[in-house]
Specification:
Helix content: 40-55%
Largest sheet: 10 strands, mixed
Radius of gyration: 42 Å
Structural class: alpha+beta
Mean pLDDT: 78
Shape: elongated
Oligomer: single chain
Number of strands: 46
Strand order of the largest sheet: 27-46-45-44-28-39-43-42-40-41
């Protein structure tokens, strides 16, 4: 019966403990800790515990009226001759009456008479039958027996003869709340309230007076703005500021304007304030109050370590004041603008996310934080016009509309209207325009280091971090506070330095000034580029940087646009034509060939006539230029929010709720009042680690460094995470998939092309002649066309122009003369002596897809007009009877072979036909390009890059759909798509969609068998694509028709090749793909700029280290760079998620630890806290980020959902495993006979002195289990899986993991030693260790505060505990590898497949 009783008692206790801890874990109910078991009540056999012995109790100092009363062992040292032993325990020549006795106590009454301390020796004794509540009397009695003096009393101010210096709690008198510190606090808060109240009353009354002066209220979206400063002292109005939409994609009358943003029209709210003396005083007082608040925090923190002297020892009151000072804030708003973030992957949102977004939106709106706030001064021009500068753009007040707008100047619509503006501006007009739009100077404000640091620290998370750090400093945790402060400061300094460097580079790029010749009042004057205004005419000079956007009026220009667009070769620019009255000017369309852009370098400027100047007309200045717009997008980027960032808010909200739960548990189980508040704030600070922001960024920073080593440069770190989620990758063809240049592959003229004029007169049926691969075999007339129909020029011996034109001209073997009285003069190769002169040229424009030249043959006196362009376009322009019957078949066959095919047409005119050169020079482009006859085809070979196919295969292996968006022909695009492996197989059926004018719809035809399948139902073919693989290709016209008829989305993910796409078409195509998934775009600059900027992830293949065209740029012009970007992006996303999970698990282990500390009223030692928070957590957080990206792309992407099933399974599963093993450890501990009846009793301990709560078995077991879990959590999340390299290849983490495990194992398994005692593991008071047969360490060990005097566990139990810990580690690793990432995950993924974008790779 006795045995059964013992067993029942033991099992009941274990069951109760297990159940209570599990219930606490899952927060389903709450019970007071005293309900579960009574401390030191019964042993493992159910017997009542005997009262414990307090081993080696350190007796207080003995104080006596006369030193002769000191026992022999405690006699003070013998003083040297001539000195006397004084009350302060020192030998002196004389003992002044003012000496303070060493037996006095702080905060206690003064001693009466002389009281001397006995010797410095510390007396140790055992206290039998120790009762915590009677510690003072028992210790005095036991110590009295030890020295052989009966009845030595505790401390009193007037002892009879002898006493123990066991000081009572300090008493500084009753707290009256009129102490100096309270007067200072009253003054501080009173001044805050008073100043706020005074300013509010003054402000409201002033506003009321001003508003009463208005007699009518406009029924508009603007309020009236008062111009007169005399009528107001403070004017706060809500003035709508309209921003003009900047349409760079279409031409029209609104092309000449300034702009704030490339976005749609949006409103801003302006609170206009006038500077006021009272406001200045209030602002100064607020600054002093802020400094005063920091000073109070420092003062109160210091006072905490001085036993709350300023608060007369009332720690609760002192702590309450500290809490109040922690949370004081204010806000000043002047300019507000709503800027909603772009949230990617919104289709994956759920009710919880939507609810949190709603709460966030409402909370921000209520708090006034749903706007971006800027402070900008309101200024006046010399004429009194009011304006302000916002985001580098001047907003001018227009009384007639009562709007602040960036001013617009309408210079003209058509090319001829702009070409006529050759006279420049008058000084008066220039002054007016300067007032309205400001100088041509983009002023970029770059703060100094201290201001930038202040701005960095003013963000919410830094405020949270420093609030947590104040807790650390205040609550005797200053060592960790210093370490965390150092980490946060270093990361902030690095961030600020990087930011300032970037902003200074932008400032250097933006703030450009130089001298320039400007035509003012009909005279040329040397002025600053800042004086340029829309409508000004200035001289274009070689070697100078273009200061604005302008159109060329006279002369030929070669511009290097590589710094702006990434275009590798300089571009030739030509003047506007005054006779071009029908063409609407579009600077990014047909007018681009005549437009020089701000920031580009003028490589060459040649006047068309001797003695004339190369001049240009200013169209846009400042931020209205393309460069200004890009600079603004860099300085004021649109916020982009990843699903990762959105769900992080939910996680932090959940963790804060956990913190509130900890507060409730702390009040219930552990402490009350301010102590409970401090413990719960510590729990929140550890649940939401101050290091979390750094951990989330470090993965991106490491990835950016690795990309830099691969010559891939990033200017927007968060985009690296987006690169890890790329689903669709769009490629330009030429220079990206294929080699940079095209190789001349010969020509295919019509039969008897030299006599084409006579043949057309005779109506001979045109036929293709054979394909000639060498230029020597090409007929002379076609040779002339090849040699002249281009815009190639030379600069320093280098050919400048379109790469295709350069290749074509080189193949002709003709010579381009350096000097000519004509547009150009060319000399044929040997065998002919007559030069030919280009007398007129219309350059190639994407909109027309053609160019034309008029050539004077000096040998015959005839004028030959050559028109060159896309073969489809030339076919439309030519006389139909000059087109061979098999034209479409021949061109299609050439394109199918991957050839780049241009067509050449001809027209012959003689000067004797009634007009001369002068009359001919006035011909329009339409006149030049009419009545032309087809001459032949010019063929170039489009060679694939050697590594394109393997990298496209790698992208497809990584579940990334590849798309081609090219300006080339559809058939060439299809050929390259097959060659590089974009198509599913090389024999895949391709249907080509082209727009048919006659049918007014898109006609789909088989690429390989166009005659057999020439107008098929594409929907039927797509319906059977699962059985018969099918790819689609569309021309630019077909694409536009599908867009106009809202059909493009139906076929979008089946179209592999988008051909003949204009720059605007590329942007539109990319944006359509962005609707379906994360989309990347790559190209070599030039006409890809818009698409690169539009895509989620753009990578410009440019030689520039940092491109303002796209977030990524690379000088390694290969698809391999795209693979590397995705590889590193996936690795960075997985690493960021790992860092996040590690710190969240750090918080969860901390929460688990807090539950046990609250229940058992224990803690860990101060040094082990420091080791965990400083060394283990910080270094392992860094080490986790060092994982290398996987070598190959796997057919899935890492999750970006931190609340997704895989992430939650990983985190919750690990938390559950850790809980089970921690509970098991305590179950095992409570089954030990040596532990029962030696449990920690905290009743005699000050609960706010947390560092006194670790010298016990419970705290030691808790510390060991949690310590190993802290270490192992990083290893659990180190598995590379599919996106990072193998576990062991993260050498930094593996080294730290093994090192920390070895150290922790040594602490657990070793007998008392110097290293273990430093962390209070398996150690004790030296005298107690000697008493139990252990060798005390040679270093100082602070006496243990428990009656047992040590926490050395038996060797057998240590090994059992170590085995349990190893099982915990192995279980956690196996769970992550086998369940979360292994076979279980694979099985569940197949059974419940995640919803993914359906696409053909």
């Amino acid at each position: 019966m006795k045995y059964g009783h013992h067993h029942c008692s033991k099992s009941t206790f274990v069951t109760m403990t297990l159940i209570s801890l599990i219930l606490a874990c899952f927060v389903t109910t709450t019970m007071a800790s005293a309900e579960f078991h009574t401390i030191n009540d019964r042993d493992i056999y159910g017997e009542k515990c005997k009262l414990p012995t307090y081993n080696s109790y350190s007796c207080p100092k003995l104080c006596v009226r006369d030193i002769s009363m000191c026992p022999p062992d405690l006699q003070p040292p013998v003083c040297p001759e001539g000195t006397t032993y004084c009350v302060d325990g020192k030998c002196r020549e004389s003992c002044p009456a003012s000496l303070l006795s060493a037996c006095s106590c702080i905060g206690a009454p003064a001693l009466v008479g002389d009281i001397y301390p006995c010797g410095e020796s510390i007396l140790h004794t055992n206290i039998e039958n120790f009762i915590a509540e009677n510690k003072a009397n028992q210790s005095a009695y036991a110590c009295s027996l030890a020295i052989g003096i009966n009845g030595v009393p505790n401390w009193s101010p007037n002892p009879e003869s002898v006493m123990w210096q066991d000081c009572p709690a300090p008493y500084y008198g009753e707290l009256t709340f009129t102490e100096d510190v309270f007067i200072a606090i009253y003054a501080f808060y009173g001044s805050c309230i008073g100043v706020l109240a005074l300013w509010t009353l003054f402000k409201k009354s002033s506003e009321k007076m001003i508003k009463s002066s208005f007699h009518k209220i406009k029924e508009r979206r603007t309020d009236v703005y008062i111009n007169s400063d005399k009528e107001k002292s403070v004017d706060e109005k809500f003035i709508t500021v309209k921003e003009t939409e900047k349409d760079t994609s279409s031409s029209g009358s609104n092309d000449d304007h300034s702009s704030v943003d490339g976005e749609n029209d949006e409103n801003m709210v302006i609170h206009a304030y006038k500077k006021n003396w009272l406001g200045s005083i209030c602002a100064f007082i607020f600054m002093l109050q802020t400094l005063g608040q920091v000073g109070f925090m420092i003062l109160i923190t210091k006072d905490y370590y001085d036993d709350c002297y300023l608060f007369r020892g009332f720690g609760e009151i002192q702590a309450s004041v500290f809490i109040a000072l922690c949370y004081d804030q204010g806000q000043y708003v002047q300019v507000e603008r709503k800027e909603p973030a772009i949230i990617l992957l919104e289709d994956q949102s759920n009710r919880v996310m939507d609810f949190v977004k709603y709460l966030e939106k409402r909370g921000k709106h209520i708090a006034g934080m749903d706007v971006v706030v800027n402070n900008v001064p309101l200024e006046k021009t010399s004429s009194g016009t009011k304006y302000f500068v916002y985001q580098c753009t001047r907003f001018v007040y227009h009384p007639e509309t009562e709007l602040f707008t960036p001013h617009q100047f309408h210079l003209g619509d058509t090319v001829s209207e702009l070409a006529a503006l050759t006279q420049g501006l008058s000084t008066e007009e220039a002054g007016l325009r300067r007032e309205l739009i400001g100088p041509n100077f983009i002023e970029v404000y770059v703060p100094n280091f201290m201001v930038a640091l202040f701005q960095e620290f003013s963000s919410f998370f830094y405020i949270y971090q420093f609030t947590a750090l104040w807790l650390f400093y205040y609550f005797a945790y200053w060592q960790v506070g210093i370490a965390d402060t150092a980490v946060i400061l270093v990361s902030a300094f690095v961030k600020v330095i990087v930011r300032l460097r970037s902003e200074k580079r932008i400032k250097q790029m933006a703030e450009y000034t130089d001298k320039v010749q400007i035509c003012r009042d009909g005279e040329w004057k040397e002025l600053s580029t800042a004086d340029l205004l829309p409508g000004d005419v200035f001289q274009v000079a070689e070697g100078k940087t273009t200061p604005c956007d302008a159109v060329i009026l006279a002369g030929n220009v070669v511009a290097d646009e590589s710094s702006l667009t990434g275009e590798p070769l300089p571009i030739r620019k030509f003047p506007l034509r005054a006779d071009d009255i029908n063409t609407v000017y579009d600077r990014l369309g047909s007018g681009k060939i005549s437009t020089i852009f701000s920031g580009t370098t003028i490589s060459q400027a040649q006047p068309t006539e001797k003695g004339s100047k190369v001049t240009a007309l200013v169209t846009h200045t400042g931020t209205a230029t393309d460069k200004g717009e890009l600079i603004k997008k860099i300085l004021f980027p649109t916020s982009v929010s990843f699903i990762f960032d959105e769900q992080l808010k939910i996680v932090i909200l959940i963790l804060l709720c956990c913190g509130m739960f900890c507060l409730a548990i702390a009040i219930w189980m552990y402490a009350t009042g301010t102590s409970a508040w401090f413990y719960s704030m510590f729990a929140i600070a550890q649940l939401v680690s101050p290091l979390l922001p750094a951990a989330l960024v470090v993965g991106q920073s490491v990835a950016a460094g690795r990309l830099r080593k691969k010559n891939i440069f990033c200017v927007d770190l968060p985009r690296i995470l987006m690169a890890g989620k790329i689903q669709l990758f769009c490629f330009d063809k030429t220079g990206t998939l294929t080699k940079e240049g095209l190789e001349f592959f010969g020509a295919q003229p019509v039969v008897d092309s030299n006599n084409i004029v006579d043949n057309r007169k005779c109506n001979n049926v045109p036929e293709f002649d054979k394909h000639e691969e060498t230029i020597d075999q090409v007929p002379r007339l076609m040779q002339m066309g090849i040699a002249t129909c281009h815009a190639v020029t030379t600069l320093n011996g280098q050919f400048i122009g379109n790469p295709v034109d350069i290749e074509m001209f080189k193949s002709s073997k003709w010579t381009l003369n350096d000097h000519s009285d004509y547009v150009d003069t060319l000399t044929p190769p040997t065998g002919s002596v007559s030069n030919v002169h280009v007398i007129k040229r219309y350059e190639f424009v994407h909109a027309r897809m053609s160019m034309s030249v008029a050539v004077l043959d000096s040998e015959t006196g005839k004028i030959h007009i050559f028109v060159k362009g896309a073969y489809e376009k030339i076919k439309d322009l030519c006389n139909m009877d000059s087109i061979p019957a098999d034209y479409d078949r021949v061109t299609a066959n050439q394109a199918r072979q991957g050839c780049y095919v241009l067509a050449l047409a001809h027209r012959e005119i003689t000067l004797e036909e009634g007009f001369g050169l002068e009359a001919f020079s006035h011909w329009s482009r339409d006149q030049m390009e009419e009545n032309i006859n087809f001459l032949g085809l010019v063929v170039f070979k489009n060679q694939l890059k050697s590594d394109t196919a393997e990298n496209i295969a790698e992208l497809k292996r990584g579940d990334t759909r590849t798309i081609m968006i090219t300006g080339d022909t559809a058939l060439t695009g299809v050929y390259i798509a097959r060659q590089c492996g974009m198509a599913a197989t090389s024999t895949n059926r391709f249907l080509l969609g082209d727009y048919d004018k006659t049918l007014n719809r898109v006609v789909w035809a088989d690429v390989d068998e166009p005659d057999l399948f020439n107008d098929v139902n594409v929907d039927e073919f797509l319906f059977n694509k699962g059985h018969t693989p099918l790819e689609l290709a569309v021309t630019g016209k077909a694409f536009q028709w599908l867009v106009d008829h809202n059909l493009i989305r139906k076929y979008l993910l089946d179209i592999r090749v988008f051909a003949r796409m204009t720059p605007n078409g590329k942007v539109q195509c990319v944006q359509l793909h962005m609707e379906r998934g994360i989309t990347a775009m790559t190209g070599d600059g030039g006409n890809d700029c818009g698409a690169l900027r539009a895509a989620h992830v753009g990578i410009a293949m440019s030689d520039a280290e940092a491109s303002i065209v796209s977030p990524f740029s690379t000088s390694h012009r290969s698809v391999e760079s795209c693979v590397e970007l995705i590889r590193q992006g996936r690795g960075a996303l997985a690493t960021s998620l790992t860092g996040y999970k590690y710190l969240i698990l750090y918080g969860q282990v901390m929460m688990m630890l807090k539950m046990f500390t609250f229940y058992f009223a224990v803690s860990m030692s101060e040094t082990i806290w420091i080791a965990i928070d400083v060394f283990i957590t910080v270094l392992l957080t860094w080490a986790v980020s060092q994982s290398q990206a996987a070598d190959r792309l796997e057919p899935q992407r890492p999750t970006a959902r931190i609340l997704g099933p895989q992430t939650l399974a990983s985190g919750i599963g690990l938390v559950a495993i850790n809980w089970v093993y921690l509970i098991s450890a305590f179950v095992m501990l409570f089954s030990q006979g040596w532990f029962r009846c030696n449990e920690f009793d905290s009743r005699a301990v000050d609960m706010s002195k947390w560092w006194l709560l670790s010298d016990n078995y419970e705290g030691e077991v808790l510390a060991f289990i949690c310590l190993f879990q802290f270490i192992n959590n990083a290893a659990v999340f180190n598995f590379g899986y599919k996106f990072r390299q193998s576990f062991y290849k993260n050498y930094a983490l593996v080294f730290l993991w093994l090192l920390y495990l070895a150290i922790a194992s040594y602490w657990l398994l070793a007998d008392p030693n110097r290293f273990g005692c430093m962390f209070r593991f398996n150690c004790g008071t030296k005298e107690v260790l000697s008493q139990f047969g252990y060798t005390p360490p040679p270093t100082h060990v602070e006496p243990f505060n428990t009656p047992l005097g040590h926490n050395v566990m038996p060797t057998e139990f240590r090994w059992k505990l170590w085995g349990l810990i190893v099982a915990n580690l192995v279980t956690a690793l196996a769970y992550e590898r086998l369940v979360v990432l292994g076979p279980v995950h694979d099985y569940l993924s197949k059974k419940f497949p995640p919803k993914r974008l359906e696409k053909t790779l």
